[in-house]
Amino acid sequence: MKKQSSAKGTLVATLSIALLSAWATPAHADGKKDRLTALPKAVGGAIAGVTVGVPVNIGKSVKRMTFDMHDSISQNFSFSDEADVYSKVVAGILAVPYGLVGGCIYGTVKGLEKGVIQGSEKPFSKESFSLE
């Protein structure tokens, strides 16, 4: 067992070094330092974008979906033109679980999407953190 794990470790290390040298070689030939730092910056931006962007997007989505559903239900349950206390209570009871579940799912998906895409294209920007 120990020989297999050390062989796998050696293989992984060899492939990592080969990929890194193949990726970095053109940067040294052209004299461009930006290309050498582009990949770590993009990876760091994507990781930071996902780490910060997902909770921010979840909070925004939960709030928006809860308020939208509350307004929709309270208008449909009211017996007059304006929403009364009964319709607001029923709307609150139904809208909060909908907003929490739907907002968490939607916010996670959108936060991951924006964090990875915007984080790799524009690392550490407001767009990657879903702050705009």
Overview in brief:
With 132 residues, this protein is mainly alpha-helical.
Detail the topology: elements first, then pairings.
Blueprint: H1 2-30, H2 34-77, H3 85-121
Helix content: over 70%
The number of domains: 2
| Number of helices, counting only DSSP H or I runs of 4 residues or more | 3
Strands, count: 0
Beta-strand percentage range: under 5%
Described by strand count, sense and barrel closure, the largest sheet is: none
- In whole angstroms, the N-to-C terminal distance is 52 Å
- In the predicted model, the low-confidence regions spanning at least 5 consecutive residues are none
Written account of the structure:
The protein has 132 residues and is mainly α. The chain folds into two domains: 1-32; 33-121, no CATH class. It has helices spanning 2-30, 34-77, 85-121. The longest helix is centred in the middle third of the chain and has 44 residues, at 34-77.
List keywords for this structure.
132 residues; mainly alpha; 3 helices; 0% strand; elongated
